[in-house]
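Q: Sequence in, structure out?
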Amino acid sequence: MKVILWVLALCWLAAVEADGLVTVSPEQMRRLGIAVRSPEPVDRVPLKSVPAQVTVPPQNDRVISAPLSGVVEQVTVSRGDWIAAGQMVLRLDSPELLGHQRRFLNAWQEFHVADARYQREKELHRAGIIAKRRWLETEKLWRQARTALDQARHDLMLLGLHPSAIDRLLQTGRLDSHLDLRSPVAAVVWSRLVTLGQRVQRADPLLRLIVPQPLWLELAVPVALAKTLQPGTIVRVESEGAEGRVFLVGSLVDPDSQTVLVRAEMVRPGGLRPGRKLTARLTLPVTGVFKLPRTALIEQGGGYFIFVRHDAGFEARSVTPLLVTSEAAYIQRGLRSGEPVAVSGTAALKAAWLGVGETE
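A: Exactly. Output:
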């Protein structure tokens, strides 16, 4: 059947000119299914797909730790929850907190006494009733009391007490061992590291949070391909409509996989989420390169050829592709902008071209 097809093709094709043009009439092109198309100029060429994982910058990975030892009394969030900055996420029952509150109240009382003496003796000093030395001593004690109060308040805030809770402590004087921990940023709960009723020590991790913007993509790139990459190289995850730009090409090679770590920041994250593993395609910036359907390119004698349409017929022209995939050919040399190229029916053109060559 294939032999008959080629015989018919050769019969349909007219004579070949001396300069190698395969002459074909419009009717013969229709019967043989020959279609032409102008090449598409491109400024990027897709390279090999490589394994990748979605991550976040180190500064976007947050851990909420226990500021004091205690018992986990309440957890208000679960893995995957979106939380707002300042939202309460966990409650500890910590007897240690009582000591910090007591020190704060004592500092407040001492400052209150020192401030009353300060205000009274300030007027006496202005009136010249007390000596300057006594006034300076009173002022020093007042400053020390104010510093101690500020330090005690700051310590409570570092432990996680909300300013409203500190004000309430001053108003009521009632000590409370419950400590509400709040998220410092708007984030997603990546993992919960404790359970209800668990006893924790100071600095034990309780929750891990992720700020999901911006996203990074960490790629494992073969050494040979990594040599061609530069900062700014485009990375695409076409299935998710995501695109990023390389900002780091690692200087070390993984001894097991023989790959180089490449990082890209996603400028268009699409549907990507932290932690996901997938494949991504690198694209190389180029100039003077044209894209054709893979069907336009034929192989012959170890080289690549295309059929360029002229008024008198088709010219079999040698070209140099930069990259050939299953769907497209990216031509680096041998093709000019706007030249019509056969993109289908090339098998019949090749048969006629080679058949003429053999007879000669």
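Confidence is low (pLDDT under 50) at residues 1-18.
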